[in-house]
């Protein structure tokens, strides 16, 4: 009898152990997202939500960002740079296939780069490829890129989501059925609800731990809180309700991480608008803004004030917040000098993120206090892209620029805020030509100062990356060197 009881107990223990082991071996994850991507082709759309899903997961470039902001090889295993800095010879990984089974080779790299730099290119960061003079296939695993001028940032440019490698066979349908080379394949997109990606069994590189990842769209901060608390969501990078973070921090089921992003959050001004083309009016707007009130009211204290378009954690950052300190009396004086002693009316068009919607209400009140009546329009993301980013039909808007090291956008007169300064454009040309770190640092500091003194935009704060996750999840990015939810190193602990 004793033997039978012990045997039964042993069997029960084995069953229980197997159950616990199965529980510990969880290989699926549900990720919360506030914004649904308008499409899934990062080479043809400006929305950061695209890269949140597909960067490093579905699509890969020649190089890629690591979590610490450094650049690593990706589809290019290595590269050689000519002594004059004009020729980059990329040596590609062998055995790489797209998700449809076709080979990825030098022809695909040529297609991708030529398409991105073409005259009719719809790439949101077309300027990244402007300096490419030619792309030549040396052999199936070697491609030579020749630049018109040296560019010290070219390898970094190739790590952007806009520079991922795509295939001519599938490019027409990548917006809804993305075909990349990454460790996850696209499985399903239920509009308004979720996107599902699955482990790529034929991945050329190191296999990922997760078998499936679901990106769940939850735009409302209150709903995001409820979903996390109910554990319907496993992780929410860029969590949209920072006022509830103390509750998660006090709950052992969750981990809360506060990291940095590259997201310069700005009150963008249309520099060709009848009012904002006047630098005195732009300066008046800058002095009407109380940054800390916006950070406290819209972000519940999360965020670092900025006075220019540059990330504070970058070693070349210059603190220029003193140039646009909160001074409503000075703002009124400048408006009078500009010919608007009684102020004027304008538009404030806001995209969906909570930093914009919440911040917009605060900024509208601050502007109203100095005489500027900013009429708020809340737009969906697709509307914002069409009206503001593409159509340039706005007076003011609020948006966080999450692209890494993107001060070069101020050298593009056609960019949505339409700043046209030949002196700044020359600075960016000098930066691209410079390879000496000290010289590049000096140019970057001069560039930051120039746009701050020209009050191109109202510089608000650096967007914090506040994330909430199940405490058993490992490998999520703490910081955001680029806009991405990179799942390649994510797993569940026992």
Compose a concise summary of this entry:
The protein has 13 helices and 19 strands. The protein is an alpha+beta fold and 494 residues long.
Indicate the CATH topology of the largest domain: Dipeptide-binding Protein, domain 3
Shape: globular
What percent of residues are in strands? Answer: 15-25%
The biggest beta sheet is recorded as: 7 strands, mixed
Quickly count the domains: 3
Q: What level of helicity do the residues show? A: 25-40%
Question: Can you put this structure into words, describing what you see?
Answer:
The chain is α+β, with helices and mostly antiparallel strands. Helix content is 29%, strand content 23%. The protein has 13 helices and 19 strands. Helix 7 runs antiparallel to helix 9, helix 8 runs antiparallel to helix 10 and helix 12 packs antiparallel against helix 13. The longest helix has 23 residues. It is globular. The N terminus is likely disordered.
Main traits of this protein?
494 residues, alpha+beta, D-Maltodextrin-Binding Protein, domain 2, Dipeptide-binding Protein, domain 1, Dipeptide-binding Protein, domain 3, 3 domains, 7-stranded mixed beta sheet, 13 helices, 29% helix
